[in-house]
Amino acid sequence: MTMKRLLIDTDTAGDDATSLLFALRWPGVKLEAITTVAGNVPLDLCTRNALLTVEKFAEGTPVPVYPGCDKPLLRPQLLASFVHGSDGMGESHFPDPTLQPEAEHGANAIVRLVNRYPGELEIVAHGPLTNLAVAYKLDPTIVHKVKHVWIMGGTRHFQGNITPSAEFNFYADPDAAQIVLQAGFPVTTVGWDITCLYSLVGGEDLDMLQQIDTPASHFYHQINRSALQFNREFGGLDGITHPDSITTAICIRPELMTKSARYYVEVECHSEQNRGYVAMDTRPHPEPNPFWKGGPPNAEVCLEVDYKRFVRMLEAMLSGSYGQFE
After folding, report:
1. CATH number of the domain that residue 81 is part of
2. pLDDT tens digit string along 214-223?
3. Which are the contacts of 204, defined by CB distance < 8 A and separation ≥ 6?
C-alpha cells in the first residue's frame, strides 16, 4: 500500500478534530504534522485542541503540532466560538493534554516539510489560509513541490455561513485566500455548498453513528454537539455539518468526489459588504472584453460528492472497521 503523506492546517474545533481523526486513524495515511491557525477559536485553543486529539488517538509516535499565525494577515481576529463552544470542542472542557507544541512556527514547518517530501506531501487546509500564504511568501518554490492542496473554503454560487455571500475561512482572511489561490498551487476547493448538500449528517444516519460504542465515536459526538445545536437553532440545518472532515475524506479517497470542474477563482478583498466572496468564472466560453481581468483556470472546484459513501467512511473511521474500503 502506498503511504499518503498529509499535513493538516487547522483552526481546531469540533469538525476540524473529526478531520484529524480521519488522518490519524485511516489505514495508509501518514499525518506528518499539524499546523494551527487562529480562526474558530484563538490560536492557543486551536493548538490545545489539536494536541488533545493527537494525545487521545495517535498511535505510536505523536504527530507534531506547530502553532502558526495568531491573526489574519491584514485584519482583526475573527472567531466562531458561538458555533463551536467557548473551548471549540462542544463545551467539553477536557483536561489539558500532556503533549506540548513544537517551537517552530507553523509556516516555517510547512516550508520545511514540503521541501523534505517534494512531490509527496499533500496539504489539507481547513482554516483561514494565513499559514499557507505566509509559507508561500517565505518560499514561493513550494507551489511546485507540494503534491496537492485541498482547501475547505469559499462557496460556489451558494449562500455563505458567516455573511450572505461568504464562507467563514475566506471571510476571516480573504487576503490570504487570494494569495494562495493566485500562487499556482495544485488546488482543489471544497466549499460550504458541498457541506450543506453532501455532508450534513442527521436523521437515521446520525442515529446510526450514535450507536457506535468506541472512544472515537464518543469523542466525535461530544466535540460536535455545540455545532449540532447551533445548526438546529440558527442554521436551518438538522444535523452535524462536516466541512473539514469531508475535505480530508476526499483527500484520502478522491473517488468520493464524483464531479468537479476547473475554474478561474478569485476572492473579494476590497468590498466589506462582500468580503470573502468567491468569484468563479463558470462561463463555458468567456468572451474577451476590457472589464474582466480573469485568467485561465487556477483551481479544481468540487461540485458533487457521494454522500452515502462519506457516511460509510465516518462509520468505518469511528468504529475502526475498514473492511469495505480495503
Report:
1. 3.90.245.10
2. 999 999 999 9
3. none
